[in-house]
Amino acid sequence: MKKTVVIASILLILAGCKVEITTPVNISELNNNTKKIVESQLDVEVASCNDFKDSRKESESLIEAKSSISKIFPKAEFIECYREQFDNKAAFKIPVTVGSKDGDISIYHISSSNSNYVAISENLQNKIKEFKKKSFDKIEPSITILLKNDTDVEQSVAVYSAYINGNGFPLGTLTLKEGNVISIKLSDASIDSIMKRNTSLFMVNLIDE
Questions:
Q1: I want to staple 190 with a disulfide (CB 3.0 to 4.6 A). Which of 103, 183, 186, 201 is the partner?
Q2: 42 has which bridge partners?
Q3: Strand 87-98 with 105-110, pairing
Q4: What angle do CA 153, 156, 159 make, to 5 degrees?
């Protein structure tokens, strides 16, 4: 039994620490360059939600996840631990800045080029590096933007190196009708750019000539 537990622990370490961030973004708020703090969901994969000896207690992996997230994101609020298919996930609420580049995680627009970016601050970058030094886990982040056209006109955009509604596109152009919502999940290449250079282009607004 002990041998099985040890093997399972090693496999979990090798698998890494999957961190998923999902942020709702309105096009009007992104384009007007006015800072807004939006509530985003951060999901962290854990080995289990409950202690295997006493299900009334939290598992060690959940306790560790709550401790680690509170150090990286001091304003994080724990929501719940849940099971999705074969994965156990600890869910948190974290603040993300939209329309400005002065948050730990920012989604912002540059008017001169009609380009939209995701960025992380130097402060957050340093916290992640410090976590990597002290932990066996490799952080495997993913970022998903739930983009809503809340304006009264259609919006044409070009999305770069991302998954649009689950479909991979190195470059995908589409038109969002009023009220439409699309899921934009950044690719590994975009995440790598954010982790190494603190920012990555993910979308350009297209203007009809």
A1: 186
A2: 21, 92
A3: parallel
A4: 140
